[in-house]
Amino acid sequence: MTPLLTDLYELTMAAGYFEAGLAFETAAFELSFRSLPRDRGFVLAAGLPQVIEFLLESRFEAADIEYLRSLPQFARVSAGFFDLLQSFRFEGDVRAVPEGTPLFAGEPALTVRGPLWQAQIAETFLLATIGFQTLIATKAARVVEAAGARAVVEFGTRRAQSPAAGVLAGRAAFIGGCAGTSNTLAGRLYGIPVYGTAAHSWVQAFPTELEAQRRLQQLLGPSTIYLIDTYDTLEGARKAASLGRPLWGVRLDSGDFVHLSREVRRILDDAGLSDAKIMASSDLDEHRITELVERGAPIDAFGVGTRLATSADAPTISAVYKLVEIGSGGRKRYSAKFSEGKISYPGAKQIFRQQDRDVIACAGEQLPGEPLLEEVVRGGQPARPLPDTRAARSHAGRSVAALPAAIRRLKEPEHRRVDHSEELERLLEAARREAKGAPA
Amino acid sequence: MTPLLTDLYELTMAAGYFEAGLAFETAAFELSFRSLPRDRGFVLAAGLPQVIEFLLESRFEAADIEYLRSLPQFARVSAGFFDLLQSFRFEGDVRAVPEGTPLFAGEPALTVRGPLWQAQIAETFLLATIGFQTLIATKAARVVEAAGARAVVEFGTRRAQSPAAGVLAGRAAFIGGCAGTSNTLAGRLYGIPVYGTAAHSWVQAFPTELEAQRRLQQLLGPSTIYLIDTYDTLEGARKAASLGRPLWGVRLDSGDFVHLSREVRRILDDAGLSDAKIMASSDLDEHRITELVERGAPIDAFGVGTRLATSADAPTISAVYKLVEIGSGGRKRYSAKFSEGKISYPGAKQIFRQQDRDVIACAGEQLPGEPLLEEVVRGGQPARPLPDTRAARSHAGRSVAALPAAIRRLKEPEHRRVDHSEELERLLEAARREAKGAPA
Description:
The structure is a homodimer.
Chain A: H1 8-19, E1 26-33, E2 43-44, H2 48-57, H3 62-69, H4 79-86, E3 93-96, E4 102-103, E5 108-115, H5 116-121, H6 123-147, E6 151-154, H7 163-175, E7 180-181, H8 184-190, H9 200-205, H10 209-220, E8 225-227, H11 233-242, E9 249-252, H12 257-270, E10 277-281, H13 286-294, E11 301-304, H14 306-309, E12 319-326, E13 333-334, E14 349-353, E15 357-362, E16 370-371, E17 374-378, E18 381-382, H15 389-401, H16 405-408, E19 417-420, H17 422-437
Parallel strand pairs in A: 6-7, 6-11, 8-9, 9-10, 10-11, 15-19
Antiparallel strand pairs in A: 1-5, 1-12, 2-4, 3-5, 3-17, 12-13, 14-15, 14-16, 17-18
Helix pairs in contact in A: 2-6, 6-7, 6-13, 7-8, 11-12
């Protein structure tokens, strides 16, 4: 991974800080979500290990530096800056909420403190990583909420926004509560359960559907799931039933799921296969699943692809990364932004989670409640082992279950109360006065 | 890149084909778009070089194979299959439309012909790659259409669905007509112009806004673009104007762009800087740009991020990859799918682009019009040099300009007439009869 995976202006700014003698000032940046995506009462923070890996392991290659030197924007930059890039190692600190923590609008998910230029150039990668995985973990939590006790498997890589996004979507969906993913690489990289049996092309590749099913059963034994809609769903179910055990069940992928699941259930039961399960997939999301559950469709598991892996109803999240402090000791300045509709609070912060509200406070404060941000990188070194993906999923599950139903609601959820500490409000006012009083 | 970046069922099917003696049957798969995303009258095909690179260069590592062996789904698979994976080299053929070619619903963007198991496991990567880049190139063409003669720069990596998606979004947006991208790595990898100067944090890092501007001008000279809304847009413009030349212009990033662009234009003109340009960014898309253009806002260039890099109004595309032929010579069977709402035509195909319609025909047919699919890989080797990204952008620009305005319309576009040749219709009927008559 190269730090060149960033917006060019991060690098021009880094060069400019270097020229202005500011590159090594200590700065703190904060990553937060300006607002929650539509119909979300919370988001589930995700993406931290990929951020830490990027910060601690990415290096500028010679070709990266040569490329920058070739750009007109770097024509006036002194050689010392390129030397700096060549020897780049991230030297700062990172504080973050654990993966799987529910967050609300305006709350910091992560703070980076370090040399200004280093903290600056990380912005783009951090936003895209935390933003996307948080988006998908949150969407997964919604789908899982709708499915109740039924398992949800993430199936979306083919429709993800790039193959690499599919791998991370599989990871984030698992944190959000999915039972697993169809993405094999996500399974290998993150230790996530992987699922998958056969597609329509499998059925088509054999002269008859029954032969395709027989071959599948030989291959997969008790993991066998027949996809039964290639030609005719009920015919497919009858053929599957005729093969008896071993099997896990059948998958519906088109048609009226309420009607078909009932008919297929009857076919399986009549064949003495009452333990065989029915899975449904194709164009599902939390609303469609809610409807199927409410209408009593006898479906045991859902495969959810496109709309989960892209969070299709709300495909973006307003993640922002803001400079909140610069300098240290007596020269420290607190930085905030007051432009229309884009106010940001100054200073590094802590979130205290109380029973019925969160309080965002200054980093040094001690308030009642559970502090959420913890140190994960110190001086460019890991400060603690991170929970693995399974632990993040458990944390998410417990944390979401502890939220009031009104906040978890899938449509028009209530908003949790989030206050700012008195000290933080005072800091905002001071920053505002300073900005207004600043000489032109 | 590892071929493990695929849905698990591609690999279980490959194993099953191997066990059933079908793995080396010649198969043809076709990638097409079942329907066009909302309000799109066409899509722009993109992503081909990444597909070819994956097919020709991806290899299973020992760790990949070890991982598969550890899965319950592979417990019954013979050792020969894992040997096959270890020696995997793609040996098939690929035919595709050139990048930047407008396509319509149901038209094949690409055909893979090769050993069944190899063509099968490529499915997931090909869909996610072609699907996503096509989605973004298409979105970019819409934004560029709205902007008319004004430049559009892609700014969306921070809000892309993963950092890697941001790199590919920069590429695809350029093919769709953007002037360049903020993504530095996309610039290096694909030879795309890169743009970027400074963010709000730059302004905040200096004691005064004027000092921040002066430093930027020293750094960037004639490439200087001041971001002027950190504290107060018009004040920011006055300070920028006071510094005179060299500069390229200023950027607005919040507030009422119609009002602010007029006021800022006046400030710049009054300072004798009538050649200084005004760029606008923040929450833009084709509809917002249309409105700004119609209201006569004096904006010279647009930076479009979130909604472009995610195609936020239509974040998914119904890309499908279907088995259309299997076997060869006298044993060749044509494969189609007739399940509810998901009909697919059998056989490898060619598209003939005529003046006022396209005709989808069987691969061997010769019809009037321009044939769109061309051979790009033959027997696992590149069959021709691919056009580079700039050539793809030119091809897209010419091709879109040649489409009727009614098809390019941004809302409720007309649909182009797409017919199927008589031979292809006969093949569909034959496949349907064969499927119906197939013994159970």
